[in-house]
Amino acid sequence: MIADPFVQLRLLDLQAVDTALAQLAHRRRNLPELAVIADCDQRAAGVRSQLVDAETTLADLAADQRRMEADVDTVRSRARKDQQRMAASGVPAKEISSLEHEVASLARRQGTLEDELLELMETRETAESEVADLKGRLEAVAGERAIAATARDEVFEELDDAEKKRHADRDRLVGTLPSDLVALYDRVRESSGGVGAAMLRQRRCEGCRLELAGSELSEVRAAKPDQVLRCENCRRILVRSHESGL
Ligand SMILES: [Zn+2]
């Protein structure tokens, strides 16, 4: 391929733009805020699952409490009925004795139920405070995430602007270069880790850092200025300049 030496040098400007674009993309991918956000999401998922468990426990306790309160009511109303029956006239002595026995037994049962109820209400308070604690933790994580997301969006905006400028630079440069040269450069760049064109400086390819010697050096020295050269080692387009040391 043939290209004017000045055109070949502009390929290095295009490479500089592409390298800058790659650095911007790298920065976008490796933003510390992205790790913070991922960490927040992971922690929030953990807390949310704990919260589901805690809320289930709390709902179960509330149901237990309602059932126990209903049991207490039943026992109380039964005892009240017994007492009313005992107070009525003409109740046989044998029945009175049996009722007295039942009332005493109901009182014991009520006492036990009330103790259990008290214990359950304490457990429920603990469960309630755990739910509140988990909700608080969830909010804190959400706040942390929001701060990171805002910071991320700000940097993304900066990166968007920088990329837009670089793309405009690229378009401008590409417009001044022969399309077959750009096509070759793009192809090499894609297969060579983002570097398609490298300067030959002091007989060294700046793409692979290898110094030209022997027949390769002779060939490069003998090549016409407008000949587009490739590094024999890394296959990148080798651009000569007054610093090439030939
Ligand atoms: Zn090379």
Q: How would you describe this structure to a colleague?
A:
With 246 residues, this protein is mainly α. It folds into 2 domains: 5-25 and 178-240, no CATH class; 31-160, Helix Hairpins. The protein is 76% helix and 5% strand. Strands 2-1-4-3 form a 4-stranded mixed β-sheet. Strand 3 (229-230) and strand 4 form a beta hairpin. Helix 1 (5-29) packs antiparallel against helix 3 and helix 2 packs antiparallel against helix 3 (93-175). The model has no long low-confidence stretch (mean pLDDT 97). The structure holds zinc ion. Zinc ion binds at residues 198, 205, 207-208, 210, 231, 233-234, 236.
Number of helices: 5
CATH class of the largest domain: Mainly Alpha
The coarse overall form would be rod-shaped
Based on secondary structure, the structural category is mainly alpha
Low-confidence stretches: none
How much is the average pLDDT? Answer: 97
Named CATH architecture of the largest domain = Orthogonal Bundle
Helical coverage, percent range: over 70%
CATH topology of the largest domain: the name is Helix Hairpins
The SSE string, one letter per element, is: HHHHEEHEE
Q: Give me the count of strands.
A: 4
Q: How many strands, which pairing sense, and closed or not: the largest β-sheet? A: 4 strands, mixed
Strand content: 5-15%
Question: Which short descriptors sum up this protein?
Answer:
Helix Hairpins, mainly alpha, four-stranded mixed beta sheet, 246 residues, binds zinc ion, rod-shaped
